[in-house]
Every structure is written in structure tokens, then in C-alpha cells.
Amino acid sequence: MKKVAITVLLVGALLLLVGCDKAVPDVKGKTVEQARSALESAGFRLGTVDYDENGEGAPGAVIAQDPAAGKTAKADTPVVVTVAGSPPVTTPQIVGLGKARAKVTLEAAGLTLGDLTRAYDAKIAAGAVVSQDPGAGKETPKGSAVAVVLSKGPPPVAVPNVKGKTQAAATSLLEKKGFDVEVVTAESSAAKGTVVSQKPASGKLQPGSTVVITVSSGVALVKVPKVVGMDAPDAEAALKAVGLKPVNVVHNGPAGTINGQPADIMQVYKQSPGAGSMVAKGTVVKIYWWSEAN
User: Residue 132 and residue 130: Cα distance in Å, rounded?
Assistant: First the structure.
């Protein structure tokens, strides 16, 4: 019987304690979320949230509460608060939008475009929003600024050296790195179809950038014209016109012959390589002519 009586007394005491009134905490000056946390910690709960656009106080801060701070009330009593400013708005989703469109979207929701920073992002196109703060769906005081991070595009990638590779191999390697490839050709002593230079030759570029490769078209061959019988200046001009380099070999003494006849002064009587030879552009052609003996 004693144990039963003690148990009943303990239960009754607990019920009395639960039903005891408590002092309501002061939540003025706090944000709605801060007020909610303070009230719940004290054993109460947040009730209706009203807004006063003309209320004195920082926008978004509690300026009045009911029951008032210090009043006693039963546990779990809802506390109604009044907040300065307009009701909050829901932050729209702007990730993926360009700066201009993001600004219009925020303003339509009653918010403004805030601080802008930039960061590389492999998935979001350059100039579009990578992230936002507050995030989409968050309740935000009307007129608040939303900070955004704009994409600078994918991070830069090292440009590989493709000099000496075939055009196909160089193009494949560059494209695997994410670059576009522009091919130009140029005459070169390098094997035909191999890369002789690239621009840029090194450093880093963002994927999608263009790398220009110059591919050898080989050495162009030209036919050596016949200049035997010409005066030396005319012979030089004829050789230069086809991309060859004339070199004069002058003799001060007996002249050579052309078809068995002595050559005139300054008349070319011999050339090397001979007329009709197929040689690379830039090849030296020697022309021989006689200068009057001293």
C-alpha cells in the first residue's frame, strides 16, 4: 500500500510541474527563426507571425510579442510575434541563368541581385549563375539581396605539345583535351602531313578554345629555267621569279663558250643545276659569266 501511495504522489507532482506556468522569453530584436529557437528552448512555440511594414525596427526583426516577455504562461503556449517590414518572399531558382535574366527574375520576386563573384565550373556555361545565397525556396525578407556566383566556364587545361606529330594524331590529342583545332598548311622541309608549329605552343586554355596547328605540305618543287645566254641581271631576275636563289660565279679571264662561240661579257655561259631540273624552292642556282680581264 505504501508503494502505491508514493507512486501516486510522484505522478501527481509531475503533473503539477508540467502544468506550471513559465516566464515567456523576450524575443524582440530577433529574426523569426531565432525567435522560434528561443521559444522552443523555453518550452513554448512560435505562433502566428504578423508583419508591420511601418513598424519601427530592423526589417525582419521581431518588434512585438504576445504574451509579452516576462509574462507567465503554460508550456507549449503559442507566442504570436510581429515583425518589422514586409512578409518574406520565396527566393526563386536562378542557378543556370545568365546575369541579366537572373536579375530580372529576382526583381520580379521582390528581391535584388547582390554581390557577384566568379568561379570556374565544368558544367555551367560561362556567365551563368553557379550558386546563390539564399538558396532557391528559402523565405527571404522582401527587398533582400541575393548573392550569386557566376561561372567562368570550365577550368583551364594545359595545352599539349603536338609539334612533330601527324595531323591526325595532333588533332585527336587536342580534341581529347577539349580544344577546337584549326589547321593551316605551309611549305616545309619537314615530312608532309606533320605539325611544324602550333599556337599557342604551351600554357593553359579553357576547353573550347582554339589551337592552331601548322602542317607541312612538303617542299614545293620548281623547274629551273634556262638562263644560259642571258645577261647576268636578267638571269638573276628569271631565277628569283620562280623562287630560286642565283649565285654569280664571275671569271676574269677567257670566256666560256655558248654553242662553241665565246660568250659576251656578262653573258651567262653556264648554269648549275641545269635548265629543266626539278628542285626545291630556295635552291641555289650558280650562274657563270665572264668579266673583262683586268
Answer: 7
Kindly state whether residue 110 falls inside one of the protein's structural domains: yes
Determine the length of the chain. Answer: 294
Q: What is the C-alpha to C-alpha distance for residues 107 and 267, in angstroms, rounded to an integer?
A: 88
196-239 pLDDT tens trace: 999 999 999 999 999 999 999 998 889 999 999 999 999 999 99
Q: How far apart are CA 67 and CA 196, in angstroms?
A: 84
Nearest in space to 49 (alpha carbons), one of 13, 87, 17, 14: 87
Single residue among 84, 117, 136 that ends a domain in this structure: 84
- C-alpha cell recorded at residue 262: 665565246
Listing DSSP states for 115-126 in one string gives EEEEE--SSSPT
Q: How far apart are CA 138 and CA 126, in angstroms?
A: 26
What range does the domain containing 244 cover? 221-291
Cβ contact 261:244 at 8 Å: no
Q: What is the CATH number of the domain that holds 38?
A: 3.30.10.20
Taking the C-alpha atoms of residue 93 and residue 137, their distance in angstroms, rounded to an integer, is 7
Q: List the beta bridge partners of residue 248.
A: 287
Chain position carrying cell 583551364 = 156
Evaluate if residue 56 carries a pLDDT over 80: yes
The residue assigned the cell 563573384 is 117
Closest Cα to residue 70, out of 24, 36, 27?
A: 24
pTM higher than the cut 0.70: no
- Start-to-end CA distance of the chain, whole Å, equals 154
Tens-place pLDDT, residues 34-43: 999 999 999 9
CA-closest candidate to residue 177, choices 215, 214, 209, 212: 209
Scan for cell 513559465, then name that residue. Answer: 22
> Are 253 and 230 in the same domain?
yes
Q: Is residue 123 part of a domain?
A: yes
